[in-house]
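Figure 6 in text form: structure in, sequence out.
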């Protein structure tokens, strides 16, 4: 029986962002990272569904600063 692989959150986010960019197909990304295309699609879907959580809720501890060129 094959051993399950564990991936870091950073790796999953990196792969999901690649899929969201749309520069490559899910199949190309999966082949590049030696993953099943379903796994890439799952991480992409989870990223989309969790996107609203990034911008919701609570007050920020410090204001964002923007660099002016």
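Output sequence:
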């Amino acid at each position: 029986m094959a051993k399950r692989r564990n991936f870091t959150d950073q790796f999953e986010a990196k792969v999901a962002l690649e899929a969201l960019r749309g520069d490559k197909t899910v199949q190309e990304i999966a082949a590049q990272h030696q993953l099943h295309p379903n796994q890439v699609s799952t991480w992409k879907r989870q990223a989309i569904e969790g996107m609203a959580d990034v911008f919701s809720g609570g007050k920020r501890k410090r204001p964002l600063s923007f660099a002016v060129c």
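Caption detail: The chain has a mean pLDDT of 88.
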